[in-house]
Automatic annotation (TrEMBL), chain A:
It comes from the Bacteria. This is Anti-sigma factor RsiW. It comes from Microvirga subterranea.
TrEMBL record, chain B:
Belongs to the sigma-70 factor family. ECF subfamily. InterPro entries: RNA_pol_sigma-70-like, RNA_pol_sigma-70_dom, RNA_pol_sigma70_r2, RNA_pol_sigma70_r4_t2, RNA_pol_sigma_r2, RNA_pol_sigma_r3/r4-like, WH-like_DNA-bd_sf. It comes from the Bacteria. Keywords: Sigma factor, Transcription, Transcription regulation. Residues 11-74 form the RNA polymerase sigma-70 region domain. The keyword S-adenosyl-L-methionine does not apply. One of its GO terms (biological process) is DNA-templated transcription initiation. PANTHER family: RNA POLYMERASE ECF-TYPE SIGMA FACTO (PTHR43133), RNA POLYMERASE SIGMA FACTOR RFAY-RELATED (PTHR43133:SF25). One of its GO terms (molecular function) is sigma factor activity. This is RNA polymerase sigma-70 factor (ECF subfamily). It holds the Pfam family Sigma70_r4_2.
Amino acid sequence: MAQLHFSDEILMAFADGELEELVAASVEQAMADDPAIARRVADFLRSRRLVRSAFPEETAADVPAALRAAVQARIDGFEPPAHQQEPATPPAKGRATFAGKPPLAMALAASVAGLAIATVSYLAGRQNPLPSQAAGPIALLEDPQVSRILSDSPSGREQDLPFGRVRVISTFRAADGTLCREFKLQASSGTSDAVACRNRGWRITFALAEATGPGAYVPSGGGDLMESYLQSAGAGEPLLDAAEIEALRKTEP
Amino acid sequence: MPAAIGQDLVALLPRLRRFALVLCRSPSLADDLVQGACERALANAGSFTPGTRFDAWAFRILRNHWIDHLRRSRTEGMSEDVTVQTHIVGDAGEEPILNKLLLAEVQQIIDAMPSEQREVLLLVCVEDLAYREAAEVLGVPIGTVMSRLARARKRLVEMTAAA
């Protein structure tokens, strides 16, 4: 049975309502199948509430009069005092947890909360509360030897490492200009299809893994998911040949 | 003539100040920062794009102002001492789940985090900025926002789970 592995970033993005629909649906499915994943998502929802509660509520009363007066004086210097100024933007009201997020996110949050409760008793009897985070093909993706290949190896070339075989599939720039590479790692523990982006070293931003089972590999629709992820990351056209070499050689900005 | 932003700035003052406190941890320095940032915002009102988030635009100006301050003070040495935030005000209306003890603990954990994690926590979890918006405020790739944010939130959950 094909198994998807989700990075913390992806699960967090799901909890925050930031995932593209197709990827979100796959996370939802994974949560239904694996209580540990549901638990990780629930933890991200909880952490958001904790942070929110921990920061003092901002009120106008907290602003020292001197500061307010100083700023008002500057404003009067720049803008002619007028009593009926149109605000540049409508004032943001109602600081709901998912303000500005699609209603879908809220529905998901509700279902996650339900799942999380159902999960607790299940987890209570287990030795390892987060089995999906245990070392597996995903953990290997962060190995320095993999990073070295990502820095040096042109797309299409396979390289052997002590724990598996790496093949870089493509090189592209994300929407924000970050250099990213899609690659496959075939290890004894399973095969992963992953994206790493260069940001003070290579960081895994997305990974799909199929654990090695007793039977043959089952196609997981991972290709579609990867496509969907790349689209939501705003991946640009692949950099080829000289452009790829040039991009890899350039040091990080 | 750019749109008048004065009243929006005034309305935003409490949140600008809260962000400034997260950045510099000193109330008096925070007030200076906010004032300086407001001046910059007024002088550059034309750079605000109507239809985008005004708060994110102002946060970015505030943060750039802070970075400039840091750059200058690196040679001069920091004169401000770090002041401990004393107010404990919960988000009582929305999340009545936290007792004071847990709240204080969470605040301590966040306070002890590196500033790059504290600021992203505030922008995303409290100010509800999207990852992309937070990335623009901070001037880093969205992947950096996500990795810092995930790390900080995991740590928070791990450290409060034992309680």
